[in-house]
Design brief:
Layout (H helix, E strand, L loop, with lengths): L10 H9 L3 H23 L2 H18 L9 H19 L12 E3 L2 E3 L10 H6 L1 H12 L3 H12 L4 H8 L3 H25 L6
Length: 203
C-alpha cells in the first residue's frame, strides 16, 4: 500500500494513509515538517548536532506512535509538541550556565532603578527577516528566561497560534497569553536602546 501520494494531500489524508502503513505518506509528512522541526530544535538547543538528533528522535517517535494519534489536535501541533519535548529534555540535561535575566531591575547604590522601556511596535518576525537585525534579535531572545523563550519562538517566530502553543507546552491558554506578553515586554526592553539610537550595530 505505497501508491503515489499527491503533494496536494492534506495532513489529515496523509496521517490516515500513514496509519494504513503507507510509508510514502509518512515520507511526505516528514518532508513537510523536517525544516520547521530542525529550525525549532536549533533555536532551542543552539546546537546543529543536537537539532539533528531531535529531528531524528521526533520522526522516529511519530512513526512509532502514529497509530495512537487520536487527531484531537492538528498533526502540526502534535509533531511540534513531540519535538519541543525532546528539545526541552536535552536542555534539562545540559549544564545550566547562570546568567542575568533582563527582567531584573538595575541596581544603583543599593537602590532598584526601573529600566527605561522605549516604544517597540514592530513585529518580531518582521525584524528577524532583516539581515541587519538578526544578531541583536537573537541576542535578545537568548537573554529571555527559558519559560518565555520557548513560547516566543513557537508563537512569534514559528507563527503558531496561542492555542497550538498551549497544547504543545501543556499550558492553559491564559498562561500562554501571559508568557508571550511578558516575553514581548522583555524583548522590547532589551531592544529599547537600539531603537532609541536608531543604529543597527555598535563599535
Amino acid at each position: 500500500m505505497n501508491e503515489v501520494i499527491p503533494s496536494t494531500s492534506s495532513d489529515e489524508e496523509l496521517v490516515s494513509q500513514a496509519k494504513a502503513q503507507n510509508y510514502r505518506a509518512f515520507e511526505e509528512l516528514m518532508k513537510r515538517y523536517e525544516k520547521g522541526i530542525y529550525n525549532l530544535a536549533l533555536r532551542i538547543t543552539k546546537s546543529p548536532q543536537e537539532a539533528e538528533e531531535i529531528l531524528q528522535d521526533t520522526f522516529l517517535s511519530v512513526f512509532k506512535n502514529i497509530d495512537g494519534f487520536r487527531e484531537e489536535s492538528s498533526f502540526k501541533t502534535w509533531i511540534y509538541k513531540v519535538a519541543t519535548n525532546f528539545a526541552l529534555m536535552k536542555l534539562r540535561k545540559k549544564k545550566q550556565i547562570s546568567r542575568v535575566f533582563i527582567d531584573e531591575p538595575l541596581q544603583l547604590d543599593g537602590e532598584e532603578i526601573p529600566r527605561d522601556i522605549a516604544d517597540w511596535s514592530k513585529n518580531p518576525e518582521d525584524l528577524y527577516e532583516k539581515q541587519e537585525l538578526r544578531r541583536i534579535l537573537k541576542d535578545a531572545v537568548d537573554s529571555l528566561p527559558d519559560t518565555y523563550q520557548t513560547v516566543f519562538w513557537l508563537r512569534d517566530i514559528d507563527g503558531l497560534s496561542n492555542q497550538e502553543v498551549a497544547t504543545i507546552l501543556g499550558l492553559s491558554l491564559p498562561a500562554v497569553k501571559s508568557r508571550i506578553l511578558r516575553a514581548r515586554l522583555l524583548m522590547r526592553e532589551y531592544l529599547s536602546e537600539y531603537f532609541k539610537d536608531g543604529k543597527s550595530g555598535r563599535a
